[in-house]
Amino acid sequence: MGKEKAGSDMTKKCVMALDAGTTSSRCILFDAKGDVICSAQKEFMQIYPKPGWVEHDANTIFDTQLEVAREALAASGLKPSEVAAIGIANQRETTIVWDRATGEPVSNAIVWQCRRTAEYCDELKARGLTEPIKKKTGLVIDAYFSATKLRWILENIPGVRERAERAELCFGTVETWLIYKLTGGRVHASDYSNASRTMLFNINTLDWDDEILKEMSIPRSMLPEVRPSSGSFGETLPEFFGESIPIMGAAGDQQAALFGQGCFEKGDAKTTYGTGCFILMNTGEKPVFSEHGMLTTIAWGVDGRISYALEGSIFMGGALVQWLRDELKIISTAPESESLALSVSDTNGCYVVPAFTGLGAPYWNPYARGMIVGLTRGCSSAHIVRASLDAICYQVLDALSAMEKDAGIPLSGLRVDGGASDNNYLMQTQSDLLGTDVLRPACVETTALGAASLAGLACGFYEGHAKQNIAARFTPRIGEIERAERLNGWRRAVRCAVAWTES
Ligand code: ADP
Hints:
Elements: E1 3-4, E2 14-20, E3 24-30, E4 36-43, E5 55-56, H1 58-76, E6 83-90, E7 96-99, E8 109-110, H2 118-126, H3 130-137, H4 146-156, H5 160-165, E9 169-172, H6 174-182, E10 189-191, H7 192-195, E11 201-202, E12 207-208, H8 210-215, E13 225-227, H9 238-241, E14 247-252, H10 253-260, E15 269-273, E16 277-284, E17 295-302, E18 305-314, H11 318-326, H12 336-342, E19 351-353, E20 371-373, H13 381-407, E21 414-417, H14 424-434, E22 438-441, H15 446-459, E23 462-463, E24 470-474, H16 480-499
Parallel strand pairs: 2-6, 6-14, 10-13, 15-21, 21-22
Antiparallel strand pairs: 1-23, 2-3, 3-4, 5-8, 7-9, 11-12, 15-16, 16-18, 17-18, 19-20, 22-24
Helix pairs in contact: 1-6, 10-15, 11-13, 12-13, 13-14
The structure holds adenosine-5'-diphosphate (ADP).
């Protein structure tokens, strides 16, 4: 972690990170060394109006966020004047539209997971927009991103289009909404990393793209100003904490984690092993457009420079461990997967291909289905558990290899976080298969730390970039020949899962 800056304001004791997640609002206070002082968290309601639809109440997002911020501050015993700044990390792409004058949302927030605009996305693809949108935004056309969600609100909520045409409405993702509310409506701004997830932002020109806005009939007046991720986003109204606190940083959660992991150089990468796995590689100051279906995204804008990243994700990460626990019932807790995997010396030739919802990068086959291959009479539940953990590693390896090829940059070690990164067998296997070191930091709150670092850098509370303390380093223990053999087995297993779809 960066040292406290010489000559900085010694009355400041912490940075407040607001981690506005998909299922909960959290607040963590970090001290000058980057250590956690205290935290608070509150879950909020997920709203599922129809199959495949997911919404949040935007006012609840703000209310819970404010509540946990006050709670953490009270628990720390610090005064609001001792908070140097606020940094925000947020669930990305989730779309909110509200009245510029009253701050009242026109509908529930449409959450990133919501699939309601999938058909419209198919239309856009059929109209040949895949390539132009990829070149402009770095993204593949998908319901995941904000653009089609915003259009849905304009088309479907009565009166909204007219109000938007009269410039009475604001659009924002969650950080923009929180900044607007915290500043009492004075600031309507996003940061580069969040803007790059809307599918409306041109990542080459660093501006909202007029052609896409026209195509989707989105009035420019609704859109926030886009600012650097580390820099001023205004001040909170004094009534919220008793005194105003400057908001000095904002980034999407995955990009904040990349920053919090200290991945500042080209080739630095991190994987978050949660329910799914999120993999980001810093590719430096120019966007790299993927040949393998990876997304190109803005990592952050800091110190007048934009850093780009390649991003890939895997649906079945920790979810595969949940499946072993809840459906197969061959483990009773997620951590038990580690001891069971270690109770055998290999997978007995068996491979698990977790293509439960198809195969992602670099295979991109939505029709493939899950498979266990290579079973023999001696294959036990321990072998299947071990092969399942290996499968998580193979998928991460596939994504990282694709990124290395796209970027022409070799991977320089992998940093890890997320619930399943606790599993030492999983991390050792990841290192073995990648043939590179896997580094697990002491502070696993990398998303919040990233937000705190962005804010702390901008206000001078931190000097230089955060450097993570590494708590565990896993180095490869197998040679090239064994690695090649195991990878070959995985590729054959994947081919089986694809062949299953073919007749
Ligand atoms: P999310 O943020 O997606 O909810 P978390 O980062 O909290 O996920 O991680 C939870 C996931 O990690 C679950 O899918 C769980 O099965 C898995 N997990 C947690 N601990 C372990 C472990 N020791 N070994 C393997 N998987 C684990």
